[in-house]
Amino acid sequence: MITTQSQETIVAEIYAVKQETLPELNAWLPKIDSEDNQSIGWKMAYRLRNRMGGTWIWGEGRLVTDQSVTDDDMQDALKAFWNGSGGDFGNVISIVVDPDWKPNTLTIADFVASGLVSLRHWDIKNLLQKYNRNISRARIEREHYVRGWDLNGVPVISISVSSTIASTVNFAKHARELSSDMHERVLGLFVRDKTSTMRGEIVRVIGKLRDHRARLLQLTKRKKMIEAINNASDEDLVVKIASGNNDYDYITSVLEIVVRTKDYKRLQIDGQQALRSLQIESDHRLAVVQEIGDVLANAGYIYPNPLSDMDMPDRFTSASDIGFQSTVKLGDGYSCQGDARTILRELKRHPVYRRSPNFEEDGAIKVGVLNFMGEDERVRDYLIAIRQEIRQIQFDIDFTTAERPDEGSQYEIEQAVDRLQQQTPHMIMVFVPGTPNEGDDEDGDFYHILKGYMVGNNIQSQFIYERTLDKQYALSNIILGIIAKTGNVPYVLENSLPYADIVAGIDVARLATQRRSGSMSLPAVTRIYTSDGDFIRYILSEGPIEGETLPRATLRKLFPSNLFAGKRVLVHRDGPFRGNEMKDLYDWGEEIGSEFILVEVIKSGVPRLYLNGATIQRPKKGDGVIINDREAFLVSSLPPHKKSTPRPLYVKTDGKIPIEQALHSVLSLTLLHYGSVLQPRLPVTIYFSDRIGYLALKGVKPQKSEGDQPYWL
What we know:
single chain, alpha+beta, PAZ domain fold, Rossmann fold, ten-stranded mixed sheet, nine-stranded antiparallel sheet, globular
């Protein structure tokens, strides 16, 4: 039970494993002729659990279990793998016992998180049902996620609660009623299997069940699925689901639509109602997490209370502990706090850090207006307020002309943008009804379609949402965005990063292929900054690649020697480095006399943090947990709704710099999001990069593959 305290402490959704109550673990070592050992290993663990009972996981390249299994039993199981469905098991050459093996800390934690906790799955699921909520055409469901960690030699698990929107539309019935020429309407929907934990996106319609029943019955061994296939109508659609790196054929009778933000309009979901229902206040969220913790503690898996800085003070950290200061520098060297309101106030007395040559002779910033709010006087009033603020910071602004196209017609929108472009504005300002979605950035198909069209035509844009029209902080951010997007640099960091000469970000976008497994990948963009955050240029890779890893030649193009030679280069990667990427960058650095410092920034699967004082509240920017010398959790930004709990980042360094400096680099670069109404979680080096790559895969990209205009702002 969590009780509030008079002294403020940082609490994490992390529980220490109760090692003394765990069973003895054994390991079997397979020899697998494949690069995808982990996927094959987990599939074997799943089948061994069903065949032999007990708990099985894949860890340290081994099959780890609490069962005592004879060699004869394991060899029988291996033969069954070979004779069964699934070509992956043909790559398993042998499986032998590893008698001298002892589990490491992470394996112990994973055995609890991925193995033993599954034994309590339905207890936890039933517990969470009381927190589900119904909205129009959908149901808000609370789900749990458990993961193992090595917390500086201590096995721990994290327990997190998330919310999913499930459509209440009878998907199978709806799919059956579609005529054959309308089957494409189900493509792109994200679905889940009601009989298991599988989730994925529909990428192809295979046909009707009457033509595939026998084949599907041969493919599955699960009793629930066999029963579902036997009982389903002949008219049931069979669809192909892309889930991770695998494809599966499913009948729609066992599928349920999982609603994503971009699906709201398509599935007739009220976005505002959904957003309100999705939010869980910090004190309530931690209480629900503790209920799950109680279930697992009563089972003997973990100790009952979450860890805090009172338990492990050397593992918990804050912004001041890592030397982060949220101060920025203006044009005359004057420094101030790096929040938009303070910066805008000080820019009325001090110059911007760097003024574009286009406006050195008092040339006006020319802005076209795209208005989707109709006859709303607030738009006019807001434009007047923008002009007044811009003039006070020694710029002038000229609103060239306005267009009011139909939001539902992409053709009308593109025509309106083209007409605005005839006046050669420096940027187009877009007024949009509603509110941006909480998260990394404004989201949704409308935003991306319009943003993508403008990017493809080298048009800078600033989106202004109806709900922000009466918020002063939003006006301040928008003014800074206008200044930055027109080639000026409002401010940089007051203190340069002392451990790097140059900072760059890189990401890979992936697009699932429609007719075969796997994905088509395209390197997004390398964005390059000086150590004080002054933008240098972007480099966008040309052409798609296959697989998960950036080729050596592509990396060298993204990090050209003329910009990177002889430098200490800190690289933020959106997600983990893959394959030989790290080695290839090190080799390139050695060749050009540079040192590459590699930092991975991972957005998902990270436990939340809380402040436990007189009440349970959300943490502060910069709070974190140091997992070990190379890994940490970091609260990089706070959501706009004070009742929401931020989602930390998982930051990993290659060891070239201390983890504290890696965290410092991420926090520092979050100060440079000129013009973002919401606080993005990611540093500016990798913010929006996945969408840049995704748009490029769709053919939407700047006309130049290199440039010094930050078009993603």
